[in-house]
């Protein structure tokens, strides 16, 4: 296992009984602590060289747990002040960590583990020049945040988006630690990204941007240390360029250099089933939890927000199981067809045109109609903080299945909960991607290529087990599914810290 390196001797035990929640606006995320630093290592043990390699009642019924916290409660948690968190309640990192602290308080997680998990170990920022097709140079900013490696190497995607900020990446890295723990893979959590709009660059420009970024962070990643993967805006081709670039850096490449990233094309070390894995995991979670809500997948109606990798695969696989997709919205607009939108045809349309707008067999709708359309299951599969209070008030569904990371703000969730809409939390629902990434990594390291059936079967085992863990925690702590999922994740992390101890 990689060695951790936390030092916090003498920290006072924090007040642990406040329940956390928050309001949200995406724009506030840029109030990031530390943005602007080039490289900021939060622990002494951050150098790659210093790290050794690691080896069920009615689910959908509104949860009757602790009373709903007031909007101010989450502002008061002492750990935010203790660690100097951004004050803004709309800050995404404050919100995501706040949800975890709520669970940590409920299960009485020791204070020292709460503060360790409330901050990433390493926050890396790089600025690097790239020559554009017109011969001019442009400077790009890239990130890699390594949140925690108590359970294994850091693991998490790379986001290529013009509006990515340090606190986005910190939040996503934090969620990866929780997700990997919950779903039972031997990884910690990390995330990265480049502030770039991949759709505004030629293929050759993107290749140079990705390769130069890889070189800039090459000493901070590795198959035993930190393993990136695709996220919003990045894809299998980008992963292939990263693996290829890394393999040429002889001082770091080592053996099996392609294992430095997952989500690669199948022709270059990728796993069968990885592309659809996150959507498959969303559906596996629904198969586990929908019956308890009295919903039959066959014939159930659903909406999808965001029709990229996660949204389109969730749509296609749900459709294969007899469910009907009635509305879809992405950055190009919304569409509706009460008779059902064919997910395969829509995916093909998006591939050709870049978005759902203009799809022939559906009517164009606005944002309000999209959210108001009555369905059984609503799948947010776009970006963070998209279900805020206004959307939560008009959503007409029984279940929100979080395909995206952190799509529901705490304020939005409070409204959904009050309205009896159950949220299947992202760290459970979208954990299929990282699970199959783990299978890809195992295949790379053992020179194997698994059949698709084996990948799907193994993925299902992980998802079923994780869902059971969440169900058990909900029953024991009488909380909602998000808090239960965090408890499931924290229990495994706490056990690991207990046996490892804390150095020195
Ligand atoms: P993607 O880039 O393939 O798709 C993103 C989708 O979001 C696109 O359809 C885009 O049109 C839509 N979108 C962007 N801005 C929007 C807006 N303002 N309104 C409506 N739609 C908008 O990304 P992805 O890989 O499918 O990831 C989606 C979410 O799932 C992210 O939160 C990501 O972190 C999460 N996730 C992805 C994976 C994975 O394996 N790809 C795994 C776990 C979680």
Keywords summarizing the entry:
13 strands; disordered N terminus; 504 residues; single chain; 39% helix; globular; binds nicotinamide-adenine-dinucleotide; 15% strand; six-stranded mixed beta sheet; seven-stranded mixed beta sheet; alpha/beta
Mean pLDDT: 87
The radius of gyration over CA amounts to 21 Å
Describe the biggest sheet? 7 strands, mixed
Query: Percent helix among the residues?
Result: 25-40%
Say which molecules are bound, naming each kind only once. Answer: nicotinamide-adenine-dinucleotide
Gross geometry: globular
The side-by-side strand order for the widest beta sheet comes to 10-9-8-7-11-12-13
Number of helices: 17
Task: Please characterize this protein's 3D structure.
- With 504 residues, the chain is of the alpha/beta class.
- 39% of the residues lie in helices and 15% in strands.
- The protein is built from 17 helices and 13 strands.
- It has a 7-stranded mixed sheet with strand order 10-9-8-7-11-12-13, sandwiched between helices.
- Strand 8 and strand 9 form a beta hairpin.
- It is globular.
- The relative contact order is 0.14.
- It binds nicotinamide-adenine-dinucleotide (NAD).
- Nicotinamide-adenine-dinucleotide (NAD) binds next to helix 9 and strand 8.
């Amino acid at each position: 296992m990689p060695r951790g390196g936390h030092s916090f001797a003498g920290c006072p035990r924090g007040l642990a009984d406040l329940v956390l929640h928050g309001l949200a606006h995406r724009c506030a995320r840029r109030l990031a602590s530390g943005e602007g630093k080039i490289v900021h290592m939060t622990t002494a043990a951050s150098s790659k060289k210093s790290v050794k390699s690691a080896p069920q009642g009615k689910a959908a019924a509104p949860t009757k747990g602790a009373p709903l916290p007031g909007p101010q409660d989450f502002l008061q948690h002492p750990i935010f002040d203790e660690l100097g968190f951004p004050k803004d309640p709309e800050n995404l990192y404050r919100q995501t960590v706040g949800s975890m602290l709520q669970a940590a308080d409920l299960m009485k997680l020791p204070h020292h583990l709460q503060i360790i998990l409330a901050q990433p170990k390493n926050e890396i920022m790089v600025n690097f020049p790239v020559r554009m097709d017109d011969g001019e140079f442009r400077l790009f900013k890239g990130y890699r945040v390594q949140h925690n490696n108590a359970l294994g190497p850091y693991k998490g995607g790379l986001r290529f988006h013009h509006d990515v900020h340090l606190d986005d990446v910190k939040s996503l890295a934090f969620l990866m630690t929780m997700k990997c723990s919950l779903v039972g893979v031997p990884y910690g959590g990390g995330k990265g990204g480049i502030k770039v709009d991949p759709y505004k660059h030629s293929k050759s420009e993107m290749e140079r941007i990705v390769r130069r970024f890889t070189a800039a962070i090459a000493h901070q990643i590795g198959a035993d240390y930190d393993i990136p993967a695709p996220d919003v805006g990045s894809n299998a081709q980008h992963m292939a360029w990263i693996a290829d670039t890394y393999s040429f850096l002889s001082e770091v490449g080592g053996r099996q250099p392609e294992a430095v990233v997952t989500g690669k094309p199948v022709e270059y070390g990728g796993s069968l089933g990885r592309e659809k894995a996150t959507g498959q995991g969303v559906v596996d979670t629904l198969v586990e939890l929908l019956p308890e809500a009295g919903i039959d997948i066959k014939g159930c109606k659903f909406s999808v927000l965001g029709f990229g990798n996660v949204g389109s695969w969730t749509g296609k696989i749900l459709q294969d199981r007899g469910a009907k997709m009635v509305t879809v919205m992405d950055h190009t607009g919304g569409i509706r067809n009460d008779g059902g939108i064919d997910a395969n045809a829509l995916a093909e349309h998006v591939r050709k045109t870049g978005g759902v707008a203009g799809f022939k067999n559906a009517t164009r709708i606005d944002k309000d109609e999209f959210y108001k359309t009555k369905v059984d299951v609503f799948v947010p599969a776009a970006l963070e903080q998209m279900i805020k209070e206004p959307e939560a008030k008009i959503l007409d569904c029984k279940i929100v299945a979080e395909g995206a990371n952190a799509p529901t703000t705490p304020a939005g969730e409070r409204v959904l909960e009050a309205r009896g809409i159950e949220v299947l939390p992202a760290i459970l629902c979208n954990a299929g991607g990282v699970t199959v990434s783990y299978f890809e990594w195992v295949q790379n390291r053992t020179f194997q290529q698994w059949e698709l059936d084996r990948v799907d079967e193994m993925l299902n085992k992980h998802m079923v087990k994780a869902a059971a863990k969440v169900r058990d925690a909900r029953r024991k702590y009488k909380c909602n599914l998000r808090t239960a999922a965090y408890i499931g994740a924290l229990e495994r992390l706490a056990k690991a810290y207990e046996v490892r101890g804390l150095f020195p």
